[in-house]
Amino acid sequence: MKQPLEGIRVLECAIFHAGPGAGAIMGDLGAEVIKVEEPGVGDPIRQLNTIGSIPFHIEGGGNVFCEGANRNKKSITVNLFSEKGQEIVYKLAEKSDVFLTNFRPQALEEMNITYHILKKINPEIIYASVTAFGDKGPEKNRGGFDYQGQAKSGLMFSMGEEGMPPLTCQFGIIDQATAFNASHQIITALFMRERFGMGQEVKISLLGSTMNMLYFNILSLLMGNIKIPRHKRDRENPLRNYYLCRDNKWLMMTLTPSDRFWQPLCKALERPDLADEPRFSTDADRLVNAKELVSILDKIFTGKSRDTWLKIFEKYDLFCCGVNSLEEVIKDPQVLENNYIVDFDHPVLGKIKIPGYPASFSDSRVETKTSVPDLGEHTEEVLVKLGGLSLEEISKLRDEGVC
Fold first, then answer.
1. Which residues contact 53 (CB under 8 A, 6 or more apart)?
2. What is the pLDDT of residue 175?
3. What digits encode the pLDDT tens for the residues 122-149?
4. Sorting pLDDT into bands at 50, 70 and 90, what band is 106?
5. Domains plus CATH for the chain?
6. What percent of the chain lies above the pLDDT cut of 70?
7. Does pLDDT of 391 surpass 90?
8. What is the maximum span of the chain, computed from C-alpha positions, in angstroms?
9. 264 alpha-carbon distance from chain centroid
10. Pairing mode, strands 240-244 and 200-205
11. Average pLDDT, rounded, for the chain
12. What is the DSSP track for 6-20?
């Protein structure tokens, strides 16, 4: 069975995750991804064994972040600050469909691998550049990680309850969102090349990707001067809320428009008397009296376990689900049935499970094929096959510190 991006070659000069994650995703879709790394050092993510007090190292000397960001790739080592190293990149770019980077503009200038240089070598190349805050403006040269995307976009003040300090979410959610956004834009540019025969530069940022996740919050402010508040359980619509059950597990229900669901909900809760209560008879009434109704529902939900409530709600076709911990997510039958968690044969860890691709195709295959390569594992293979170099020439370049 074919893969969607079979025959597409991506040349990646990128580090950490927001950039390399896009290459990993395109690898899931079947692209050949060649990762260029610094000789003897590699992508700094290879050494990211802990963040704060949280360990990410795995058996065999690797780490979780490197595995996720660099699956499906071939690794070659090239000194991008050397003229001979740059010549190698030019040869590979000439035979690639995509050049992917998240190096800052000043570094790309120093390495002589800007879009304006590579497009002269390959006019049809898709040059994808991932930055922290965008390629224009006073902060165009500033670096940033996942937390900067969460902070500058407004996301941290959009999560949590009113009165809480700004909240962060671990780990790498904005890096991953940016990686997916980048892969989408690259594929769009590839489609345009297919239709119109044109290469182009594609620019993606952590900030832009995160703001797009907050599209309706920002649109509300711009279009209607509506300031979206943080959630507050006893002020928001009681039927669009979350509740603690008897087993200390939470459920989340979204019953909107609530007038349609109010009577079925009262039946499911075995409280038909609430349906006739004047304080709660309409959506507007329930919102005005949200504090009282949330308090009543809090007491009702503590009477049964979460799974019991979910089975009851299913009978009445009420939109509700459990608030899962990650430990629950990876065992959820719905998750497993849809291959959102899949089996993977890891060369060191053996048979394990990993996140699957979040979409499926009826007549093509999408999958993680290989784990992270060793640093420089494919240098000889790639430089002989695509660079036209002999083994003797590669050996000499190694002695010179070029690769």
1. none
2. 98
3. 999 999 999 999 999 999 999 999 999 9
4. very high
5. 9-213+343-399 (3.40.50.10540), 240-328 (3.30.1540.10)
6. 100
7. yes
8. 88
9. 37
10. unpaired
11. 97
12. TT-EEEEE--TTTTH
Quote the CA–CA distance of 318 and 320 in Å, as a whole number. Answer: 6
Do the beta carbons of residue 35 and residue 74 sit within 8 Å?
A: yes
Q: How far apart are CA 25 and CA 322, in angstroms?
A: 29
**Region of residue 248 (phi > 0: left; psi between -120 and 50: alpha; otherwise: beta):** left
Contact 147, 206 (CB under 8 A): no
Element (H, E) at 263: helix 258-268
Decide if pLDDT at 304 tops 90.
yes
Kindly give, in sequence order, each residue whose CB lies less than 8 Å from that of residue 70, ignoring residues fewer than 6 positions away: 20, 23, 24, 35, 43, 45, 372, 373
- Which secondary-structure segment (H or E) carries 273? none
How many CB atoms within 10 Å of residue 86? 18
Say how far apart CA 52 and CA 7 lie, in whole Å.
41
Residue 359 sits at the vertex; the CA angle it makes with 354 and 360, to the nearest 5 degrees, is 100
Q: Which two tokens stand for residue 300?
A: 């009702």
If we measure between CA atoms, which residue out of 219, 245, 177 comes closest to residue 21?
177
CA angle 109, 110, 116 (to 5 degrees): 30
The pLDDT tens digits for 29-48 are: 999 999 999 999 999 999 99
pLDDT tens per residue, range 199-210: 999 999 999 999
